[in-house]
């Protein structure tokens, strides 16, 4: 279903969930939610449950050493979630469903979004607010968001 055009969409997210609002919430007038995405986090022990890989040591013939996993699992999951969200936002941008975006997230997720976002979508971002409201109930999130947006 095609969303009506709204001037500003507000992305409220953390590393495992995002709500995209089609308007600015006001007291006694909640914003509409365009879509929500959940991205369950995997625990390191679930991802790295196998024994580490092995390699032959360069110093001693026939000797093998365990390999340490490369990369920060949390960061890799953040990037994967950001890409999933950006793909959805990009579809709506191409359909002309919003003019501007406000990002509301923790500093870490704001950085991941900034690094992952394509230039055409990044140009739509007009406000960035470093707050984590995504885990709050919808009424509480909208109340706190309304107060913060009034100051920005």
From TrEMBL:
Biased composition (Low complexity): 54-64
Segments for region (Disordered): 37-73
InterPro entries, A to Z: Host_attachment_protein (IPR019291)
Basic and acidic residues compositional bias, start-end: 37-53
Pfam families: Host_attach
Superkingdom as given in the UniProt entry: Bacteria
Protein name: Host attachment protein
Species per Swiss-Prot/TrEMBL record: Thioclava atlantica
């Amino acid at each position: 279903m095609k969303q009506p055009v709204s001037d500003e969409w507000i992305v409220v997210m953390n590393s495992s969930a995002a709500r995209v609002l089609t308007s600015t919430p006001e007291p006694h007038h909640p914003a509409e939610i365009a879509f929500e995405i959940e991205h369950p986090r995997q625990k390191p022990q679930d991802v790295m449950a196998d024994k580490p890989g092995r390699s032959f040591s360069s110093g001693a013939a026939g000797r093998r050493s365990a390999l340490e996993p490369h990369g920060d699992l949390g960061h890799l999951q953040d990037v994967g979630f950001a890409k999933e969200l950006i793909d959805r936002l990009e579809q709506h941008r191409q359909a002309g469903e919003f003019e501007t975006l406000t990002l509301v997230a923790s500093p870490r997720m704001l950085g991941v979004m900034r690094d992952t976002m394509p230039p055409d979508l990044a140009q739509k971002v007009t406000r960035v607010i470093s707050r984590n409201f995504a885990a709050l109930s919808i009424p509480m999130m909208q109340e706190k968001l309304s107060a913060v947006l009034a100051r920005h």
